[in-house]
């Protein structure tokens, strides 16, 4: 099951899906802020929305997952 890692995570999955540190940096740039109290709630909401969208897509297109894993 896919879930958001952490704001510091820079793994391959976070890079590909723009989660973790890549998304955190994107939000920080948008807001011109480095305050975690400002960025963290937005980061968590965006990560959850992306994870939920990916989950919905994977249920709608079950054949894609089997081919991608092969």
Describe the protein.
Helix 2 (20-31) packs across helix 3 and helix 3 packs across helix 4. The chain is mainly alpha-helical and 70 residues long. The chain has helices at 12-17, 20-31, 36-60, 62-69.
Give the radius of gyration: 14 Å
Oligomer: single chain
Q: How would you state the average pLDDT, rounded?
A: 86
Shape: elongated
User: What is the string of SSEs from the N terminus onward?
Assistant: HHHH
* Proportion of residues in helical segments: over 70%
Brief synopsis:
The protein has 70 residues and is an all-alpha fold.
SSE layout and pairing:
Blueprint: H1 12-17, H2 20-31, H3 36-60, H4 62-69
Helix pairs in contact: 2-3, 3-4
How would you describe this structure in keywords?
70 residues; mainly alpha; 73% helix
């Amino acid at each position: 099951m896919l879930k958001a890692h952490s704001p510091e995570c820079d793994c391959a999955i976070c890079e590909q899906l723009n989660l973790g540190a890549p998304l955190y940096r994107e939000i920080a740039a948008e807001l011109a802020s480095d305050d975690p109290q400002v960025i963290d709630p937005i980061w968590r909401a965006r990560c959850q929305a992306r994870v939920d969208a990916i989950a919905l897509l994977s249920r709608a297109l079950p054949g894609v997952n089997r081919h991608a894993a092969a």
